[in-house]
Amino acid sequence: MVPSEKVKTINPDRVSESWLTARLQDCGAAAESATVTGFTAQPIGAGKMGDTFRYQLTWGGPPGPATVVGKFASADQESRAAALRTGIYQREINFFSELASHVDIRIPNCHYCKMDASTGEFVVLMEDLAPATVGDQITGCSPDEANAALEELVGLHGVEIPGLASRDWLGSKCPEAAENMGLMYSTLLPTFLERYADRLSSETIRVAERFGGCAKKWLTMSSAPYRLLHGDYRLDNLMFGPEGVTAVDWQTVCYGPPVSDVSYFCGAGLLTDDRRAHEEGLVRSYHERLEHRSGGLISWDRCWADYRLHAVAGLHMAVVAAAMVTEDERGVALFSAMAERHAAHVVDLETLDLLESCG
To answer: What does the angle CA 73 – CA 74 – CA 79 come to, to the nearest 5 degrees?
Structure first.
């Protein structure tokens, strides 16, 4: 994955045949005698913090991959600035460089990754997962799709990776992060409400404001065992294909209680009525698989308690992300849907009552 020659970090405008050839030769995806003789680039995905392109390649000599995907820093300056403040570009680069080989969840094969911290530019060149298709966060998913996504998640949470806490670039959903996470939410909530109040139900606004009073308490109730988390495990970051579910977009990778990813996914991806009807069965299936994989990581009672507690993770993400990035039509629909679903999730599980009842 690390190239044999040093090159400047690039942006999409500086991709060339020679650069693609060198990167794919260096990682072994193309023979030394192969040459990219031409390419076309097509924007794909709906990411808010990065820009992603599919490159259709033509080859001279032995053919390499027909297509590859390149991910770059966002061209939108507001979104890029938010990404640099939160360190998420470096986090994704470090995930592929340091941790990807340790996980057992399906992820794209990374051909090359690099970041220039002085400019904020980065690139991740990876395999194209087509014909797999990305999920749609706004439309939501079926209970069967949710079950497949949670089954794949066990491959991430069931593996213990030593030394996670010592990686200072890695995000945290542990008690030591509680103050910063709570402060971030309370600081950005007014901006979120200014932008979205006329698009949300009065109940969702009430829940968002009420959580502001106990946001700093949320993570103080987290406890070990901790595992590597995706941190933004939702439909827009999942590819569904013949081989199963593949998780992409590792910009929010962190460590903390594993069920946090589960609660976030169910609250975000399932339509509210489907979640109410199926969530306990889905969480039980996840827990059984995790127990089998890990040899008894957490009890069912602990699993369900964590699931209730971390229902607020999605509300936190919706408010913070919506306030930090530039508004566009899809973003408005996305964050509105997320806020409504996560608020309903919090109410159904009585999570705020749980937080407020703890001293």
So the answer is: 120
- Beta bridge partners of residue 134, listed in sequence order: 239
Percent of residues, the chain, with pLDDT higher than 70: 97
* Nearest-angstrom CA–CA distance, 290 and 297: 7
Burial letters for 300-339: b for 16+ Cβ neighbours within 10 Å, e otherwise?
Answer: eeebbbbbbbbbbbbbbbbbbbbbbbeeeeebeebbbbbb
The pairing of beta strand 171-172 with beta strand 133-134: unpaired
Neighbour tally for 132: CB within 10 Å: 18
**Secondary structure, 3-state, the chain:** CCCCCCCCCCCHHHCCHHHHHHHHHHCCCCCCCCEEEEEEEEEECCCCCEEEEEEEEEEECCCCCCEEEEEEECCCHHHHHHHHHHCHHHHHHHHHHHHHHHCCCCCCCEEEEEEECCCCEEEEEEECCCCCEECCCCCCECHHHHHHHHHHHHHHHCCCCCCHHHCCCCEECCHHHHHHHHHHHHHHHHHHHHHHHHHCCHHHHHHHHHHHCCHHHHHHHCCCCCEEECCCCCHHHEEEECCEEEECCCCCCEEECCHHHHHHHHHHHECHHHHHHHHHHHHHHHHHHHHHHHCCCCCHHHHHHHHHHCCHHHHHHHHHHHHHCCCCHHHHHHHHHHHHHHHHHHHHCCHHHHHHHCC
Strand-pair partners of 116: 121
For residue 193, what pLDDT band results from cuts at 50, 70 and 90? very high
CA angle 112, 117, 119 (to 5 degrees): 100
pLDDT digits (tens, 9 = 90+) for 82-131: 888 888 999 999 999 999 999 999 999 999 999 988 888 899 999 999 99
Sorted by sequence, the CB contacts under 8 Å of residue 114 that are 6+ apart come out as 7, 9, 93, 122, 123
What is the rounded CA–CA span in Å between residue 183 and residue 177? 10
Q: Interhelix angle for 329-348 vs 202-212, to 10°?
A: 70
Identify the structural domains of the chain with CATH numbers, from first to last.
12-127 (3.30.200.20), 133-357 (3.90.1200)
